[in-house]
Amino acid sequence: MNITAEDMQLKSRIILTYDTTEMNQNDRNKLNRALYGGISTYKKDGERIVKEYPGIISKINAQKLGKGVLMVDRFNSSLIIQTLKTFKAHWKEIPVWTY
User: Fold this and answer.
1) What is the pTM of this model?
2) Of 3.20.20.100, 3.30.460.40, 2.30.30.90, 3.30.70.240, which CATH number belongs to 11-98?
3) CA–CA separation, 75 vs 18, rounded Å?
4) Which of the chain's termini has less CB crowding within 10 Å, N or C?
């Protein structure tokens, strides 16, 4: 009897671990805003305006598993990997199958 990933309805995912300890604080903040988004507030005509900017993680439904650890669909991982390359962060990829 052969059982395949399709029979069990498993999804191909990647666990990405990344390290920002060697990055300067400015680049680390830029990377975090790119991944997780940010909030901007300003006043216009005496009224306080709050704008929220979504990050890559919310756009592609990635999951944060811990500090510097993400689980991403294999097909969406290239966007996060490219962002990590842009900011010169160190990362590792661990392929997994999930339900």
Assistant:
1) 0.79
2) 3.30.70.240
3) 18
4) N
